[in-house]
Design a protein that fits this description.
three-stranded mixed β-sheet, 12 helices, binds nicotinamide-adenine-dinucleotide, Rossmann fold, binds thymidine-5'-diphosphate
């Protein structure tokens, strides 16, 4: 079994590669990643030398390169993580979000059609459903909830989902889609809430909380997400959408305070700042379908998972210091420039 993993040098993709290589020794994984600011080969350091792993630096929008990889590797399965993933950046500059998230997905779908795959899996997000009101805690997103994205990021992910489903209906491409809630864990680029707050708190820098801090997200450990993705690849039905959630709704401010407490830092570091435009109020995912069809449910306890994640950032200071010092690109050239030419 050969799996083409796109965006595998990012946060979730690299965790997925580690998870799969640890659990399926007989699989070959091929990763294509453009190594944008969010991609980091250090995330894959442990597997770069393995005989059943290949890394290709490249853009999923590059049709020629994508076709070449399909010709060389004949992947059975494609799992598409590659994306611009940060809402705030999409508000500043939507262009690259449409390029990668929509047109890049189309290139992958075309190649999957042309060369034939057993499965094309699209890694999507609960943000395609828009948001839920704070005062209706009884409501959760199901796979049937209407698509109502709020940000250029979520609109681009929604467009990609619709394209994936259209390729199934029109061309019979064997696709599945998963829509997951907010992930946390090792290797998360320090621009998302949890990773950023850990590092700022550690450095005694202000923690910027948008608005009143009462927006709610449903946090899932990346390990639980990877396990769910593997199950969908093995057992998911073609043409189906599966929601993946952590059953763990928290206000942003609660999380920020938990991080400060764990690090023994004062709450005076919290700064309430101007809100994000169009800021989604609340995300909450029903995991009923995953539970009913596969008996899957998230397993990592949040307090424990957050503590472990904080410890990972403490133990891997050089990983994030290189990023925040802007050193990573120099590191990349020094370490891998010649080797990957
Ligand atoms: P990330 O930003 O950490 O990683 C994205 C990776 O994609 C990077 O390695 C980057 O270099 C690569 N990439 C970007 N553009 C590319 C291109 N044109 N060609 C090839 N590679 C490219 O993102 P993440 O948090 O790991 O998210 C991965 C996927 O999961 C995304 O599709 C995202 O929409 C989805 N998702 C993320 C979350 C979350 O909480 N982080 C939740 C649900 C769904
Ligand atoms: P984020 O991690 O960017 O994920 P998303 O917007 O995709 O859910 O943000 C999670 C929540 O934290 C969201 O409500 C915005 C908020 N937030 C802050 O309050 N301050 C910050 O500096 C960041 C990055 C996010």
């Amino acid at each position: 079994m050969t799996i083409l993993v796109t965006g595998g040098a990012g946060f979730i993709g690299s965790n997925f590669i580690h998870y799969m290589l640890e659990n399926h020794y007989d699989y070959k994984l091929v990763c294509i990643d453009k190594l944008t600011y969010a991609g980091n080969l250090r995330n894959l350091e442990k597997v770069l030398g393995k005989s059943n792993f290949r890394f290709v630096k490249g853009d999923i929008c590059d049709r020629e390169l994508v076709n070449k990889i399909f010709e060389e590797e004949s992947p059975d399965v494609v799992i598409n993580f590659a994306a611009e993933s940060h809402v705030d950046r999409s508000i500043e500059n939507p262009d690259v979000f449409l390029m990668t998230n929509v047109l890049g997905t189309q290139v992958l779908l075309d190649a999957s059609r042309k060369y034939g795959v057993k499965r094309f899996h699209q890694v999507s997000t609960d943000e395609v459903y828009g948001d839920l009101p704070l005062e209706r805690r009884d409501l959760k997103f199901t796979e049937e909830s209407p698509l109502k994205p709020s940000s250029p990021y979520s609109a681009s992910k929604t467009a990609a989902d619709l394209l994936v489903l259209a390729y199934h209906r029109t061309y019979g491409l064997p696709v599945t889609i998963s829509r997951c809630s907010n992930n946390y864990g090792p290797y998360q680029f320090p621009e998302k809430l949890i990773s950023l707050m850990i590092i700022n708190a550690f450095n005694n820098k202000p923690l910027p909380v948008y608005g009143d801090g009462k927006n709610v997200r449903d946090w899932i450990h990346v390990k639980d997400h990877c396990e769910a993705l593997n199950i969908i690849l093995q057992k998911g039905k073609e043409g189906e959408v599966y929601n993946i959630g952590g059953n763990n709704e928290r206000e942003n401010i609660e999380i920020v305070k938990m991080i400060l407490k764990e690090l023994g830092k004062p709450e005076e570091l919290i700064r309430f700042v101007k809100d994000r435009p169009g800021h989604d109020k609340r995300y909450a995912i029903s995991t009923a379908k995953m539970e009913k069809e596969f008996g899957w449910h998230p397993k990592v306890d949040f307090e424990q998972g957050l503590r472990e994640t904080i410890n990972w950032y403490l133990e891997n200071r050089d990983w994030w210091e290189e990023i925040i010092n802007g050193e990573y690109m120099k590191y990349y050239e020094r370490m891998y420039g010649e080797r990957l030419k």
